[in-house]
Each structure stands twice: as C-alpha cells, then as structure tokens.
Design goal:
The chain has 206 residues and is an all-alpha fold. It has one domain. 60% of the residues lie in helices and 2% in strands. A two-stranded parallel ribbon has the order 1-2. Helix 2 runs parallel beside helix 4 and helix 2 crosses helix 9. The longest helix has 20 residues. The termini are close together.
Length: 206
C-alpha cells in the first residue's frame, strides 16, 4: 500500500479499521486492475492512496471481472455520471445545489448507482437497478462481464496494471521480490499461496 502512495498515517488507520487488508497481496494483477478502475471511475479522481484508504475492501475482495467489468459496463452505456460512493450524501448534495431541503426527497433526482451496488448486488439485482436505463438488461450485463477481454477499456487496464506491477516489484528488496513472484506463480497455477509471517511484517509489503 505504501509503495502505491498510501501515507503512513492512513496506513495505520487501515490497520485499525480493516487489518486483514494488510495481508492482501496488492501486487496481484486483478487487485491492481480493481484499484485502477476505481481511481478512474469514481467521482473526484481518487489517488491510489485514497482508494486503499477508503475502498480497499472492494479492490481486494471482489473479482476484477465483477468490479471492473461492471464499471466498464456503466462506462460503455454512458452511465458513469450516476456512479457515487454513497447515495445519501450524493442526493443531499444534489438537492442543496438546487436550493431544496437536503433531507427531503425531491422530484427529478438522478437514479444514482453506489459503489456498494456495483460490488455487492447479484447480476440480476444490478441489471434490475439499470432496468430504467438503456443498458440492455441482465443478458447484456452477463455477456459483457463474461467476455471483458473484448473491451478496449479492459485490455488497457490490464496493460497498465502489468506495467505498474513490474515497476512495484522492482522497488522491493530482492528476497521479497522473489517471494512475491513465487506467490503469484503459485496463484496462476491455481494454488492459494502461503504468506510467511516474516514477509507480512516487512514495511515494503504494506
């Protein structure tokens, strides 16, 4: 996390609130893809450190096909302007900007899509959420996610993630770099890699 721009103060905050995130191998391609797509798609243009501080659980624990695939699906259908971190604050801000009471439902409110919607809803629920928008329904959503490699956005995210992975690995001490590469190789072979305690305690791994 620190290698990717998370300040030490924020790192300690993550350690207190979500300690298991410190045991995540953030150099795995899918996790880098998730972090990159969150940086690009969430409003405000978050930095890598801000993604880790605020949304590490989404980047770490949701497959890239699901998270990045759904966000690219929204982008493909011109719906990213409806994406917000949380619906409540977004609705209140929208009302205030129009001189309306912040805590009262108003006509014409945008049908916001929250990051929680993207990350936690089933395909059927997510497609239902988009039913009032021209996104093609459940079949279109599942077809898009099943074949993300056909999306230029997906290919570009993977290319950037691979470049960043190589750059970050090069910053690690030799022993940790070799251990990280070995873990990733075992992961590609379908085995869950074990992470030695000595590696987890090393500051560069965080």
């Amino acid at each position: 996390m620190q290698l990717c721009g998370l300040p030490r103060k924020a790192l300690l905050k993550v350690a207190r609130s979500n300690p298991r995130e410190l045991c995540t191998d953030w150099l795995v391609i899918d996790k880098l893809v998730n972090r990159l797509v969150l940086q690009r798609c969430l409003p405000g243009g978050l930095s890598a450190g801000q993604v880790y501080e605020k949304h590490a659980r989404y980047a770490a624990h949701i497959s890239a096909e699901r998270l990045a695939g759904r966000l690219l699906f929204l982008q493909h259908h011109g719906l990213l302007h409806l994406l917000v971190e949380k619906k409540g604050p977004a609705r209140q801000q929208w009302r205030r900007q129009r001189g309306m009471p912040a805590n009262r439902r108003a006509p014409g409110e945008p049908p916001f899509i929250s990051l929680s919607d993207v990350g936690t809803l089933s395909d059927a629920q997510f497609a239902s959420l988009l039913a009032v928008k021209p996104a093609g329904g459940l079949a279109a959503l599942q077809a898009f996610i099943a074949g993300p490699e056909a999306s230029p956005g997906w290919l570009e995210l993977h290319a950037v993630a691979q470049t960043e992975q190589a750059q970050l690995l090069a910053l690690l001490p030799k022993d940790l770099r070799q251990a990280a590469e070995a873990r990733q190789q075992r992961g590609r072979q379908g085995r869950k890699p074990a992470v030695p305690t000595s590696e987890l305690n090393h500051p560069f791994v965080l």
